[in-house]
UniProtKB/TrEMBL annotation, chain A:
The family this protein is said to belong to: Belongs to the bacterial solute-binding protein 3 family.
Organism of this sequence: Paraburkholderia graminis (strain ATCC 700544 / DSM 17151 / LMG 18924 / NCIMB 13744 / C4D1M)
Keywords: Signal, Transport
Annotated protein name in UniProt: Extracellular solute-binding protein family 3
Keyword Transport attached: yes
Signal peptide (residue range): 1-28
InterPro entries: Bact_solute-bind_prot3, SBP_3_CS, Solute-binding_3/MltF_N
Pfam family, one: SBP_bac_3
Presence of the UniProt keyword Transport in the record: yes
Occurrences of domain Solute-binding protein family 3/N-terminal (ranges): 42-272
GO biological process: amino acid transport
Domain of life: Bacteria
Automatic annotation (TrEMBL), chain B:
A GO cellular-component term linked to this record: membrane
Protein name: Citrate transporter
Gene Ontology BP term (one): transmembrane transport
Subcellular localization(s) per the UniProt record: Membrane
Pfam family, any one: CitMHS
Membrane topology label: Multi-pass membrane protein
Record keyword Coiled coil present: no
Transmembrane segments: 6-39, 51-73, 97-124, 175-198, 219-239, 251-267, 279-298, 310-332, 339-356, 376-407, 419-445
Primary location group: membrane
Keyword terms: Membrane, Transmembrane, Transmembrane helix, Transport
Domain Citrate transporter-like: 18-357
C-alpha cells in the first residue's frame, strides 16, 4: 500500500488522540526486562528449534549449545542461578514477533546483526557471539568440480531470508547464473537438497556444519565449499528502548570474552580471582553493579556457570564438539580473531 | 509481571467493571479504588502512572476543552436557536428526531473527535428531547453509539481506526475504498433497530409550539465571538497538524477552552468560576483512572501473548483471523479503552503475520507498507472490532461515559445495565454486519 499522500495527511488530523500519546507496545521501557525477569524468577530465552552446537535439545529434554550457554550465563548474572532459564524454541519467522510481544526476554538464536533489525525493527544486538558466513554445501562427489564454479547450478535456499538475497547478489556479481530453488522453510530446503533436487544448499556455514552431522550417508557424503558469500555476525538480541537490559546482556557477553583474554576459566576462576589485577579486571565495583541493577558478583556467577568464551566455543561448536569448527574469526583479537572485550570498570 | 500479579490485575479490573455494572458504588469511585489497589500492591509504579497520564492527557484535554466551549456556548442562546431549528425539522415526530440525530451526528463524528462532538451536540439534542417530551437518556445513548460507529466512516474518524490504518500505511483514499462502506453498513444497521429499541420515542407525535415563540440571540456579539471560537476549534481539529507549529487536537481543545474562557470573562456574562465548576470533573477522573487500569492490563502482556495463540488456533487461515479480530477485539474494546487495545493488537497481528510467513520480518517496522492484499482484511477486522466494540457497554468508549455524565447532570443517570440494554444489541448487530463485510472483503482481496 502506498504511503499517505500529502492531501490525506492534511485531512488525517482527525487524530484527536495524538499519536504521540499512544502507548508504544513494541519498544520497552528502560529496565523493564530485568524487572520482569526478577519478578518472574526465570529468564525466557528464545532459541532455535534445533541447530546442533547452537541450541538443541537431547532426548531427555536438556538444552545445549553456545546460544543456550549464553542464556545460562545471563540467568546466573541476573538471577543468581544458571538453571533459571526457560528456553523457547522459535522458528526464524517467529523470533522477532516473540521478542516484540515480550514472549521472550532475550533472543539467542543464531540471528545476524543487521541495520534493518536495529533500524527498522528497533531491536538491539548486545554484541557478536559467533562470527559466521554464508556458504554452500554440495555432495562430496561433486565438490571438486563445483568449487568456485556453481555456474548455472540449482541451489536450495530458504525463502524470505537474507540468505536468498545474498545468493542472488552473489550470482549477479559472479555471473554464475545460479537458479535458486526457494523452499518455504529451512527444513524444506534441507529435504530438497538431500533429495537431490539441488546441486548445492546455501545457508550459514555453522548451520551447514550442523547439518553435516546428520546428513544421509554420513558427513563424508557432503562437503562445505570454501566460498563465503556474506558476513553473518550472530549475537543475542533484546528489545529496543531498554538500555539497562541491553547493558547487562552486552556485558555478560563481554565478561566471557574478557575472561578468556585473561586465561580465566571456570576451573581456575576462584584461584585467579585472588590475583588483585584479575579481580579488578573481572569484578566491577558495587557502584557500577548497582547501576546495572543486579546483585554483586554477577560476572563471577556468569563465569562459574559456563566458563569463558573460549570454553563455551570449544564445548559446543569448536574442537571439543562434534561440529569441530576452527576458531577463525571467533578467536581472540590477540590471536588474529575478532573477539575483543572493552575494559570492565 | 508474575503470574500472581497478572491474576490480581485481571481480578481488580473485573471487580471494578462488576461494581459499576451492578451499581455497587459510584463508577468514578470504583475506578479510583481499583487504581489505588494496584498502586498499593506495587503493580502500578511511577513509570506506569506516567505512561498512563501520557496516554490519558490527550482524551482528557479534548473533553475538558469541549466541556468549557460548550458551557460558554450554552450562555449565548445558540443552542436554543439550533435546537429550535432541529425541533422544527422533526415536525414533532420522534422517528424524525432519531433519524435526524443520526444524520447530524454521523458526518460530524466522521471528522471530529467523538466525545467532544457529543458534548457540543448534547445541549441541542436534550432541548429537542425535552420539547418532544421524551426521555433524554435514549437519544444521548444513541448519540454516543452513532458517534462511535461514525468513526469508521473515515480514516480519521476514530483514533483506533487511524492507529490501525496508519500502522499499515493506509491512505485516506484506500480507507474510503476498503473500509468506509463497512462503516456505513454499521451505521445503517442501527436504523431498523430503532423501532424496537426505542419504540416510545419512535412512535411519538407532538404538536410543536407556534413559530413566533422561536428562541432569539440576546447578545449577538458575544454569541458571534463564542461561535468563532467553536469554528476555530473545528477547523484546527482538521488542519491544525498541518500548521508550522503542529497543533494536535488535544492542544486545539485546550486553546479553544482558553479562548472561550477569555470571551466569557471579557463579556462578563458568566464568571470563570462558574464555568470551571460546571466542568464534569467526575467523568474526567473516571477516565483518568480507567486509563491507569488499562495500563496495568497492558503490562500483563496478555494481549501480546495472543499473537502466538492466533497462529496456533488459526494457522494461516486469514479470513478466520479477520473474523476473530472482530469478535475478540470487539469484546476487549467493550470493556477497555479502544486505543490501547488497538495499539497492542497491531503488535499482535503484525507478529502473527510475520510468524505465519505472510510477510517478511521487516513488516514489524512502522514504515512497512507492502502488505499483501489478503492481509488487509485482518487489519480491517481490527478496526471494526476496536471501534464498534466500544458501543456495547457504558465504559467501552469515552463518548458513552461523556453521554452518561451529561445525563447525570440533567438528573437522569445512566446505569451500566441500562446502557447495556441498548448498546449490546446494537453492537452485536453491527459486529455481525461487519463480519459479513469483512468476509466479503477477504474474498475479493484474495
Amino acid at each position: 500500500m502506498a504511503a499517505a499522500s500529502p492531501i490525506a495527511g492534511a485531512v488525517l488530523l482527525g487524530l484527536w488522540l495524538s499519536l504521540a500519546s499512544v502507548p508504544s507496545i513494541s519498544n520497552a521501557a528502560d529496565g523493564e526486562a530485568l524487572a520482569s525477569v526478577k519478578t518472574r524468577g526465570v529468564l525466557r530465552c528464545g532459541v532455535s528449534e534445533g541447530v546442533a552446537g547452537f541450541s538443541s535439545q537431547d532426548a531427555a529434554g536438556q538444552w545445549s549449545g553456545i546460544d543456550v550457554d549464553f542464556c545460562r550465563a545471563l540467568a546466573a548474572a541476573a538471577l543468581g542461578d544458571s538453571r533459571k532459564v526457560a528456553f523457547v524454541p522459535l522458528k526464524a519467522s517467529e523470533r522477532f514477533p516473540a521478542l516484540e510481544t515480550r514472549r521472550i526476554d532475550v533472543l539467542s538464536r543464531n540471528t545476524t546483526w543487521t541495520l534493518l533489525r536495529e533500524g527498522a525493527l528497533k531491536a538491539q544486538f548486545a554484541g557478536v557471539l559467533f562470527y559466521d558466513n554464508q556458504a554452500f554445501m554440495v555432495p562430496a562427489a561433486s565438490a571438486s568440480q563445483l568449487a568456485g564454479a556453481l555456474k548455472g547450478a540449482t541451489v536450495c535456499v530458504q525463502k524470505d531470508t537474507s540468505t536468498l538475497s545474498h545468493l542472488i547478489a552473489y550470482s549477479d556479481a559472479s555471473g554464475a547464473d545460479i537458479k535458486p530453488l526457494v523452499a518455504g522453510s529451512a527444513d524444506e530446503a534441507r529435504r530438497a537438497f538431500f533429495a537431490g533436487r539441488c546441486a548445492a544448499y546455501t545457508a550459514d556455514a555453522s548451520y551447514l556444519a550442523a547439518l553435516l552431522l546428520h546428513a544421509p550417508g554420513g558427513s563424508q557424503a557432503f562437503a562445505i565449499l570454501p566460498e563465503r558469500i556474506s558476513k553473518e555476525p550472530l549475537g543475542p538480541v533484546v528489545r529496543g528502548g531498554d538500555q539497562a537490559w541491553l547493558t547487562l546482556v552486552r556485558w555478560v557477553l563481554l565478561t566471557l570474552i574478557a575472561a578468556e583474554e585473561m586465561d580465566v576459566t571456570r576451573e581456575n576462576l576462584e584461584i585467579r580471582l585472588r590475583n588483585p589485577s584479575v579481580s579488578r579486571a573481572l569484578v566491577p565495583d558495587d557502584t557500577v553493579t548497582r547501576t546495572i541493577g543486579v546483585e554483586p558478583g554477577w560476572t563471577v556467577r556468569a563465569l562459574e556457570s559456563v566458563g569463558n568464551y573460549g570454553q563455551m566455543f570449544d564445548r559446543n561448536v569448536g574442537a571439543h564438539s562434534p561440529l569441530g569448527l576452527a576458531r577463525g574469526t571467533n578467536d581472540l583479537w590477540t590471536r588474529g580473531g575478532l573477539m575483543y572485550a572493552p575494559p570492565i570498570r | 509481571m508474575s503470574a500472581m500479579q497478572v491474576y490480581i490485575v485481571v481480578g481488580v479490573f473485573a471487580a471494578v467493571i462488576l461494581a459499576i455494572a451492578f451499581n455497587v458504588i459510584d463508577m468514578a469511585v470504583a475506578a479510583l479504588v481499583g487504581m489505588c489497589v494496584l498502586i498499593v500492591l506495587n503493580i502500578l509504579d511511577e513509570q506506569d502512572l506516567l505512561a498512563a497520564v501520557r496516554i490519558a492527557a490527550g482524551p482528557i484535554s479534548l473533553l475538558f476543552g469541549g466541556m468549557v466551549v460548550a458551557r460558554i456556548l450554552s450562555t449565548t442562546g445558540v443552542f436554543d436557536l439550533i435546537g429550535d431549528v432541529y425541533l422544527r425539522a422533526t415536525g414533532g415526530s420522534g422517528r424524525r428526531f432519531l433519524l435526524l440525530l443520526i444524520v447530524v451526528v454521523a458526518p460530524l463524528c466522521a471528522l471530529l473527535p467523538n466525545a467532544t462532538t457529543v458534548i457540543l451536540l448534547a445541549p441541542i439534542i436534550i432541548r429537542v428531547a425535552v420539547a418532544l417530551e421524551v426521555d433524554i437518556v435514549l437519544p444521548m445513548i444513541l448519540t454516543a453509539i452513532v458517534s462511535n460507529a461514525a468513526g469508521l466512516l473515515t480514516l480519521v474518524g476514530d483514533p483506533a481506526t487511524f492507529l490501525v490504518g496508519s500502522s499499515i500505511g493506509m491512505t485516506f483514499g484506500n480507507y474510503l475504498k476498503h473500509v468506509s462502506l463497512g462503516g456505513l453498513l454499521a451505521l445503517a444497521v442501527v436504523v431498523p433497530l430503532l423501532p424496537f429499541l426505542m419504540p416510545d420515542i419512535w412512535r411519538v407525535r407532538r404538536t410543536l409550539p407556534p413559530a413566533e415563540q422561536r428562541a432569539r440571540i440576546a447578545r449577538p456579539a458575544y454569541a458571534g465571538l463564542s461561535l468563532a471560537v467553536l469554528a476555530a476549534m473545528m477547523v484546527l481539529f482538521v488542519f491544525g497538524e498541518a500548521l508550522p507549529t503542529r497543533l494536535l487536537p488535544p492542544m486545539v481543545a485546550l486553546i479553544a477552552s482558553a479562548l472561550a474562557l477569555l470571551v466569557g470573562y471579557a463579556a462578563k456574562v458568566e464568571p470563570t468560576d462558574n464555568v470551571l465548576r460546571d466542568v464534569d470533573w467526575k467523568t474526567l477522573l473516571f477516565l483518568a483512572c480507567i486509563f491507569c487500569l488499562v495500563q496495568a492490563m497492558a503490562k500483563t502482556g496478555l494481549l501480546q501473548v495472543m499473537s502466538v495463540k492466533l497462529y496456533e488456533l488459526f494457522g494461516t487461515r486469514l479470513t478466520l483471523v479477520a473474523l476473530a479480530m472482530i469478535a475478540g477485539i470487539g469484546l476487549l474494546s467493550s470493556l477497555l479503552a479502544n486505543v490501547p487495545v488497538a495499539a497492542a493488537s497491531i503488535v499482535m497481528v503484525k507478529g502473527y503475520l510475520v510468524a505465519a510467513e505472510f510477510v517478511p520480518e521487516v513488516a514489524l517496522s512502522d514504515q512497512f507498507t507492502q502488505w499483501p492484499a489478503p492481509t488487509i482484511a485482518v487489519f480491517v477486522g481490527m478496526m471494526f472490532g476496536a471501534t464498534l466494540g466500544g458501543n456495547a457497554t457504558l465504559v467501552g468508549a469515552a463518548a458513552n461515559i461523556v453521554a452518561a455524565g451529561i445525563c447525570a447532570r440533567e438528573g437522569k443517570p445512566i446505569t451500566f445495565v441500562r446502557f447495556l440494554r441498548y448498546g449490546l444489541p446494537v453492537t452485536v448487530a453491527q459486529l455481525a454486519a461487519s463480519a459479513v463485510y469483512v468476509f466479503a472483503l477477504a474474498h475479493f482481496m484474495r
